[in-house]
Amino acid sequence: MHRQSDLIHPTFSLTKIFISVWLASTLAACGSDNDSATTPPAKTGVASLPTGNLIKDPLTTKNLTTNALTQLFNTTDPDFSQVAATPKCGVRVEYMQYDTVDVKGNKTDATGAVFIPTGTDANCSGNRPIVLNAHGTATTKAYNFAEVGNANNEAGPAATLLAALFAGQGYVVISPNYAGYDKSSLAYHPYLNAQQQSHEMADALKAGREVVRRTGSATNVADNGKLFITGYSQGGYVTMATTRYLETLKEPVTAALPISGPYAMEAFGDVVFGGKVMLGATFFAPLMARNYQEQYGNIYAKPSDMFAPANADEIPSLLPSASMTDMQLILSGKLPASAMFQKAPTGNSTLDAISPSDPGFSFGFDSTQYLVKNDYRLGYLADAQKNVDWAVPYLQGYTNYKPVPATLPEHPLRKALKANDLRGYLPTMPVIMCGGNQDPMVFFDVNSSLMKTLWDTDTNKTSATKLGIIDIDVTNRATRQKPVYQTLGFDTVKNNSIQSQSEKMQAGFASKVQNIAAIAAANGGNPSQAVAMQYHGLVTPYCMGVAQTLFSQF
Fold first, then answer.
1. Is the C-alpha dihedral spanning 227, 228, 232, 233 positive or negative?
2. Angle 479-6-154 (CA atoms, 0-180°, nearest 5)?
3. Which of 469, 537, 448 is CA-nearest to residue 263?
């Protein structure tokens, strides 16, 4: 419905995309009553981590009644508050600071928020389940999930919705801001770093549980031992990496639902460098390059080896920004709006043939204002040709290939991407991926579908394996002709409940897409562009609706 060639990018706002539409549309019961709740083990893998300790006592930043939270919910996003369940609980917002690690394993610090349900409803006190949340990409350093109700903080709207839709239904929510954000002393953010981010999520979980323990006498809320994990975009990737890490710690995880994550990092990188540029690439690339440079030290000898603009040396340190919004970075000329590479003619026949590789990705190219140098791109592509990621021919229709990463990539960036690629991980706890197949920011088939293909063929599956994938977008079902709901191992009752909710969310998503397109057309705009600009974030509430039902089954 929305070709990427229809996008007009110079005025897009990542902040708006990442936050404007965040969370779930309809909610059911919390799925855990006080009588049946159990207490967690005395000592778990997370509890024994050397990090994850509170640096200061938690600070209560908000204490909202049920009515006040409902009012904030209605004000923050009237559309979703109309279709979501009204909060049963108020919320006590706790701000925490804890120790964690950087990409080298050295100690650093980070901050986060804990949402504790309050109120007289039976779901709002006693032993409660935990939702560990991983947020999506943020561009401003001041990002702080404790800023519930604050529209002036990049995290504010998302935090408000998460508080209403999960804490408001009786879950304790733990959401780290990530190292490098808010008051963290780390000078960069370990972006899409499987090792650091999963360790930090475990640290945040440990610290958050301590916050719940310390505030228990005032809130009458305790941890019942059930742990659910979710997140979208970057947070979808972090969710998957975290489930893997917690398994190694033998930390009990009840279920997880990652949303729209870039799980197949090397394959995704090969597709982008091959000419199919993702929306937002000019912001993601600097974050990623700085992170992997800090970890591996070989992504570039100096930033101008990789980046083309005149301000190349400052590009790795631009994000997260302490002083400028994403729009200001674009308007000031510090970052290209959308062009990752030079548009043909480039002076090189190899690049000319794929710059762009498809007219639908023309927004990712410009004749003069682009991000990555031609020789850096050529070096990457030479390695991709020599050391093939087998997902690429698989995606081109050669399904006799198993879509696994390259065996021995040589280019430093490809080596880093492979090291952080999540293919090869088979979850042992229930995990269902969710996303939309026309996502212009994190390509569904390059990531979610590839992971599901590998899960299907993994010989380590057992009778206890519970896995699945949901395509929330059925607007092109007739032409796409691929399954929109697949699960393995769930019993009939649970599966029917999850599938029924998925169908409701798919219908809701389709209706919302049609409404966005109709409004754009009525105002003389481009319907396809209007949908595409909201698509990545728009998927999230409907997938969160499924997450809530999945979690309620346990």
1. positive
2. 105
3. 448
pLDDT at 291 exceeding the cut of 80: yes
What is the DSSP pairing of strand 431-435 with strand 255-259?
A: parallel
The C-alpha atoms of residue 152 and residue 177 are separated, in whole angstroms, by 16
Measure the CA dihedral 273/135/531/12, to 10°.
Answer: -70
Tokens for 113, please give them: 């928020």
Q: Give 212-259 pLDDT, tens digit per residue.
A: 999 999 999 999 999 999 999 999 999 999 999 999 999 999 999 999
Distance between CA atoms of residues 273 and 270, nearest Å:
5
Q: What are the Cα distances from residue 296, in Å, to 139, 185, 335, 419, 420?
A: 23, 20, 24, 10, 12
Query: CA-CA distance, 52 to 50, in Å (whole number)?
Result: 7
Q: Tokens 């057309």 map to which residue?
A: 521
- Joined together, the tokens standing for residue 309 give 């603009």
Q: In whole angstroms, what is the distance from residue 260 CA to residue 136 CA?
A: 10
CA distance 407 to 415: 10
pLDDT value for 38: 43
Residue 8 has which token pair?
């007009």
The SS3 call for residue 84 is coil
